[in-house]
């Protein structure tokens, strides 16, 4: 006997939907509650792709198990439908985005229901519904009033085909994963939220959640909070300071060169002093084709160009140092400039080795039996080290 999946599955899916089988209950007496949240699909295309059911199925299995264990389960679904991709899709098909988005959502909903996921459809979220986005607008106003929303110019991953900003994960080998067009770094005026103001609270509150230690470590790395100091390095022959951020100001004596991000304003401001400006601009164009993720990869080959005509002065020993431009420094981290301490930083060491720059040790291990081989690698275990070569004359 053959299995008529269209008839059987449709029957039960209709019954589940009609009776609200998987809807969360307003039951305040049940202490067992479980909330499962998936990333809502973006209905800018004509239907789901295999990545949607892949992730939804995993959480659906857990949601069903929790219900069998007596939990009151909230497993919602919705559609994150705002944005330029939806508009580009509408332009391509010569239809108003409201019509195409509504049509796509209806089709996505049919597909999700046909797959039999146990979503609570009574709580469906649609970000293009005025009843929804009026609250996101209200929240933004509250953030603005509190000084937590501000406008600034920042570089983004810009798809030259879709004409939209992309997340780092959406850039693959320098092109847009959606359309294959070249992605460049482009400065855009945009609204920002001061999420960094809550960095410490986010870290502290991880103690209150039942996550695996490795997940907590990933969260802390993503939050990226660090404690350090801003240090001014005077640019020789100018009244300008090159401001850097460092978590180890005690290693300033070991700084032998400076590095700025390709987007740093220093380059534009002192273009008339730069002797190899064409070479710098060519490097900037190449760097603009890489995402922040590609640029910050630890194992990638270091590239860079010395900014001839500009030098920085070490504020402690007053030594003049060359300034380089390299894409391993990001304009979005710190000040977009670093003091390079190749003896005690892996990336700086690799860069110095490649370009023949000085390597000066200023920290040694407390244990004299520990070997420091600066011919082959940086000495990075400096937390409990002893300062050397660090006297102000």
Question: What is the topological layout?
Answer:
Blueprint (H helix, E strand, L loop, with lengths): L4 H15 L13 E3 L15 H18 L3 E3 L3 E2 L4 H9 L4 H18 L10 E2 L3 H16 L3 E11 L5 E2 L4 E2 L2 E2 L6 E11 L5 H7 L7 H11 L5 E7 L5 E6 L10 E4 L4 H5 L7 H11 L4 H5 L8 E9 L6 E6 L11 E4 L5 H10 L7 E2 L21 E2 L6
Parallel strand pairs: 1-2, 3-4, 12-14
Antiparallel strand pairs: 5-6, 5-9, 7-8, 10-11, 10-13, 12-15, 13-14, 16-17
Helix pairs in contact: 3-4
What does this structure look like?
The chain has 393 residues and is of the alpha+beta class. The chain folds into 2 domains: 5-128, 3-Layer(aba) Sandwich (Rossmann fold); 229-387, Isoleucyl-tRNA Synthetase, domain 2 (Alpha-Beta Complex). The chain is built from 11 helices and 17 strands. A 6-stranded mixed sheet has the order 11-10-13-14-12-15, with helices on one face. The protein has a 3-stranded antiparallel sheet with strand order 6-5-9. Helix 3 crosses helix 4 (97-114). It starts with a helix and ends in a 6-residue tail after the last strand.
Considering the chains and any ligands shown, give keywords for the structure.
6-stranded mixed sheet; 393 residues; single chain; elongated; Rossmann fold; 32% helix; 3-stranded antiparallel sheet; 2 domains; Isoleucyl-tRNA Synthetase, domain 2; alpha+beta
